[in-house]
Write a structure and sequence with these properties.
- There is one protein chain.
- By secondary structure, this protein is an all-alpha fold.
- The relative contact order is 0.14.
- It has one domain.
- The radius of gyration is 15 Å and the shape is flat.
Amino acid sequence: MNPVREKFEYFLTRGFFAFLRCCPAPVIYGTCRLVAGVFYRLGGSRRRITLKNLQLAFPGKTEKERTRIARAAYRHFGRMIA
């Protein structure tokens, strides 16, 4: 990975967590949920990997069900960050 991009992501993450420390709990949860949704929408390759893994793990489920599970997993990850 590009070292400049790594530093940018590092400082962006540090700034995000510094912001969260100053906020009340409802704002933290809402912000993390929003960030998780953004990561789901914009994280193309990671989302595709998630959906492919769910397809392998749950071949009997429909595409809609697997998408719902993937979104729920991203939301859960957002809650865990909070």
